[in-house]
Amino acid sequence: MNELTLNLIPALMIFSAGLAGVLCKRNLLVIFMCIELMLCGTVLVFAAFSSYYGDLNGIVFSLFIMAIAAAEVALALAVIVQFFKLRRSISANDADRLGD
Prior knowledge:
The chain has helices spanning 3-24, 28-53, 57-87. The protein is built from 3 helices and no strands. Helix 2 (28-53) runs antiparallel to helix 3 (57-87). The protein is mainly alpha-helical and 100 residues long. The longest helix is centred in the last third of the chain and has 31 residues, at 57-87. 79% of the residues lie in helices and 0% in strands. It is elongated and about 50 Å long.
């Protein structure tokens, strides 16, 4: 197996774990953490391709993804805290009744 394959396998596993968590879990915090896992998997893919091809564009794009993830953390946690104050629950099942 070449270097690229050895780097893509863990990235695929991390992304798959995040995707499975998003699809299966009902807790908004767990779903949020699984989305962050998916972003980490994509950062690994960009870093792996950047390293394999010797181009820095993948690393720069990975830095942008991490900056967006940091902004997402601030925004999503604020939304989850407000949702908890409103509903006293952070279950995704309660999120379908936000208009009530």
